[in-house]
Specification:
Helix content is 48%, strand content 17%. The chain has 500 residues and is α/β, with parallel strands linked by helices. It has three domains: 114 residues, ATPase, nucleotide binding domain (Nucleotidyltransferase, domain 5); 165 residues, Exopolyphosphatase. Domain 2 (Nucleotidyltransferase, domain 5, 2-Layer Sandwich); 131 residues, Hypothetical protein af1432 (Orthogonal Bundle), CATH 1.10.3210.10. α4 packs across α10.
Length: 500
């Protein structure tokens, strides 16, 4: 379905932001924006748990966002959470409360997925150019580095350093001096060193900053003429002058300069320290600013899904190639599994179920490239921990669960609620894999499936079962496996029709 109005919500480590846009001719025009300085990262305790005060601030902001989003269809809204909820040990307990407050599901995305979306947003807010660009986004808890051309990212990385976390670590009392600044710069430089060689080898022509820290620094430099020759954006010389002024003032609060906004002031020291280290380590002399970032990238990625340019499909295709999946076999399994799902849904399965079952059938054998023994476990491990552009961590977990469950015992899936549609997908995938064990194009008999009160029924011709004892035995074993978890799996043989 295509929507005229779409919305993105970015649950960042420093601020929560909402952006509503109108879609016109494959372009998005921003209608409304909201920002709440939640400071989520400052609520992380020493043992990486989100404290109650931070949770309360977050839930209050989400209720306000939920009011603004009221009336929008779920398919027109995408909500992403970044670094703080990636690392918070109690994120799983907080997430249902947050979703209830907002009224929409929340995706916790991986660092490189965040980087991909940031680049898409930045590139759509800049004039089209044929040269490579380096986009850098200093967030509250992480910093993303992306090199790309036009709207396509080529190299992406996310480092665990942000304006909130660095301010808390190196400037806890908000005092700013030369020693603390140098310690923060050295810490950031050590992180950047890990990626500097690859980025400099690929190269770029233009450096771009996006999001709050880059915007705040650029504003201060421009409004106070700290850049040489009246240049715009961020320059190395301007950064050095700003650092000197901060050291002289002793704190960001005492820095009496136009352009320093109140909500950005508390985390400015950490952002400046990271930015100056980036300039030093990557040899940057000048950086311009892009208005678009994560939220705009989410909107354009959402728009792509409407037009069947879903990045997740591209990622699945790339994984099939990388892990040398046998295409003919996965296509056989996919066709049979989707047929079973259609029968179980009586002709109208949900789009979400169709997508996940299709992806699972295409990827269920990727573990064979690691080892044939327990290959479903290897495949599930890869899908859980690999960077998969377009997929949230929740999406990856669901996909990994289907691949893990496509063979072997089912007790390992005991965490799935009894009412979850995932059980239908597991049934369809296991059935399709079993029916195509011969891995050839021989035709299957006329078969049918249907839901039972607490399980499934499969019906096959009696003569086919008799002439395929290996498969018949395997179906008997399958029924026993489902019985072990308290679910029915009835294999019914259909007698041959008598000819009058």
């Amino acid at each position: 379905m295509i929507y005229e109005t779409v919305a993105a919500v970015d649950l960042g480590s420093n601020s929560f932001r909402l952006q509503v846009g109108r879609v016109v001719d494959d372009q998005i025009y921003i209608l409304d924006s909201m920002k709440e300085p939640v400071r989520l990262a400052s609520g992380l305790t020493a043992d990486k748990r989100l404290d109650e005060a931070a949770q309360a601030r977050a839930l209050e902001a989400l209720r306000r966002f939920g009011e603004r989003l009221g009336g929008l269809d779920g398919g027109a809204v995408r909500v992403v959470a970044t670094n703080t909820l990636r690392v918070a040990k109690n994120a799983a307990e907080f997430l249902p409360l947050a979703e209830a407050a907002l009224g929409f599901p929340i995706e916790i995305i991986a660092g490189r997925e965040e980087a991909r979306l940031i680049y898409i947003g930045a590139s759509h807010s800049l004039p089209m150019a044929a040269h490579k660009r380096l986009v850098i986004d200093i967030g509250g808890g992480s910093t993303e580095f992306i090199i790309g051309k036009r709207h396509e990212p080529q190299l992406m990385e996310s480092l665990y350093m942000g304006c909130v976390s660095y301010t808390l670590q190196f400037f806890p009392d908000r005092k700013f001096d030369k020693k603390r600044l140098r310690e923060a710069q050295i810490a950031a430089a050590k992180e950047i060193e890990l990626i500097a060689y690859d980025y400099q080898r690929l190269g770029w022509k233009e450096a771009i900053g996006s999001s709050g820290s880059a915007r705040a620094i650029a504003d201060v430099l421009e409004l106070n003429a700290l850049n040489p020759n009246g240049e715009s954006g961020i320059t190395r010389e301007g950064l050095d002058r700003l650092c000197s002024l901060l050291i002289k003032a002793g704190s960001a609060e005492a820095l009496d300069l136009p352009g320093v906004k109140g909500d950005r002031l508390p985390v400015l020291p950490g952002g400046i320290a990271i930015m100056s280290a980036i300039f030093e380590e990557l040899g940057i002399e000048r950086m311009t600013y892009a208005d678009g970032a994560l939220r705009l990238g989410v909107l354009y990625d959402l728009l792509g899904r409407f037009h069947h340019h879903d990045m997740r499909d591209s990622t699945v295709a790339q994984f099939r190639r990388r892990y040398q999946v046998e295409a003919d076999q996965s296509e056989r399994v996919e066709a049979t599994a989707l047929s079973a799902l259609t029968q179980l849904a009586e002709g109208a399965p949900s789009e979400d179920d169709v997508q996940f079952l299709s992806w699972a059938t295409r990827l269920h054998e990727i573990g064979i490239s690691v080892a044939h023994n327990a290959y479903h476990k290897h495949g599930a491990y890869v899908l859980t921990y690999a960077d998969m552009p377009g997929f949230s961590k929740k999406d990856q977990a669901r996909l990994a669960m289907l691949v893990l469950g496509h063979r072997g015992k089912l007790e390992k899936l005991s965490a799935i609620p009894a009412s979850d549609s995932a059980w239908k997908l597991v049934f369809c995938l296991r059935l399709a894999v079993l029916l195509h064990r011969t891995r050839d194009d021989r035709l299957l008999p006329a078969w049918s499936v249907k839901l039972l009160g607490n399980g499934f029924q499969l019906e096959l011709p009696a003569e086919w079962l008799a002439s395929n004892p290996w498969t018949a035995a395997a179906l008997g074993e399958e029924a026993a496996i489902w019985k072990q978890i308290g679910r029915e799996y009835l294999v019914k043989s259909r007698p041959a029709r008598k000819i009058a």
